[in-house]
Design goal:
This protein is of the alpha+beta class. The chain is built from 4 helices and 10 strands, in the order βαβαββαβββαβββ. It has 2 domains: about 90 residues, 3-Layer(aba) Sandwich (Rossmann fold), CATH 3.40.50.150; about 120 residues, RNA methyltransferase domain (HRMD) like (Transcription Regulator spoIIAA, 2-Layer Sandwich), CATH 3.30.750. A 4-stranded mixed β-sheet has the order 1-2-4-3. It has a 4-stranded mixed β-sheet with strand order 5-6-7-8.
Amino acid sequence: MGELIDFDVKDVAQLNNPLPKGPYGTVISNPPYGERLESEPALIALHSLLGRIMKSQFGGWNLSVFSASPELLSCLQLRADKQFKAKNGPLDCVQKNYHLAESEGGKPAMLAEDFANRLRKNLKKFEKWARQEGIECYRLYDADLPEYNVAIDRYADWVVVQEYAPPKTVDAHKARQRLFDIIAATIAVLDMAPNKLVLKTRERQKGKNQYQKMAEKGDFIEVQEYNARLWVNSPTTWIPVCSSTTVSPVACSAR
């Protein structure tokens, strides 16, 4: 097999079409998936990036992806032609097969384009101001667009995305879909490492859950506020008061 197949290990961000002039082929992938909150932004960014690369560089090819998370697969923003249920030990999995339309070239479209444009505008404004004032902690976005109902705070090279609880009149499926799009767009616009983004969703706690203690883990980051250098708790140790830090399964519809 080693004489027939070339094996290479690289970041998916460096994936490119080895046969740009043909013939067409098939890409087979088993991307990582996880259930821990800390990994969610990175997984969203990974699947979003994989989908954009496939559409921009592999037009005419076939793609087959195996995963235990249909929600993350939907963030590829591709519509499957066929899918098959399978098991991976105790995990319920799915194998989705896609045929990629002929590439039209050009830069792939950004998810949540309206939100991304507003975030770029805010970044240009506040980043310049913060640099002049010597401030590293500031709010970058605060539900400027009603349909993207989150607050985004910057703490040096960390970013915290906090979802405002949507009203009951808002479809929960659409709200969760937008949250995934927000995360992918934020990582792309800020050109940041996904593991530096902290996602917090808010919902009213009941019973004993409302009496949570603040995290006791002694992780701190250093930030600047004018002429002062301050130690603040690392965003990964925060537990919002009267809210729970959870992420629900999200489905991103194909576009």
